[in-house]
User: Fold this.
Amino acid sequence: MQKDLVAACGMNCRLCLGYVREKNKCYGCRNIGDNKPKGCHQCSITKCPTIMTNKSGFCYECDKFPCLRLRNLDKRYREKYHMSMIENLNYIKQKGIEEFLENEKDKWTCKECGNIICVHRPVCLKCGKSYLEEAKR
Assistant:
């Protein structure tokens, strides 16, 4: 888990399918390169002028936090992937990025094989163990 892989919206890019895949690998939202999925290039959150000027680089510093775009993204991720970006941002704001990363490591490491779990898949990509029931708790 790395600080520079936590996007402004609270997404831990280390858990993203774009990051974990071998072919056409994405190196995270904070990476300036072109090797990102189309949706990431069009993301209004990463282009937000407030994000670019605030001290932390996270949405929680914005006067509009959580904005409509972030609330919609958060809702989709909570329903489909059992992860909340708004909760992530609140955790980072309250406890700091280091503690957040430690929590993420514990939360998203496969108990079977020790691989980092992809938030976009209901099973560990290395060993196939389902983590979906555990994630719902």
Notes: The chain has a mean pLDDT of 85. The chain has one domain: 3-136. The two ends are 22 Å apart (CA to CA). The CA atoms of residues 5 and 14 lie 6 Å apart.
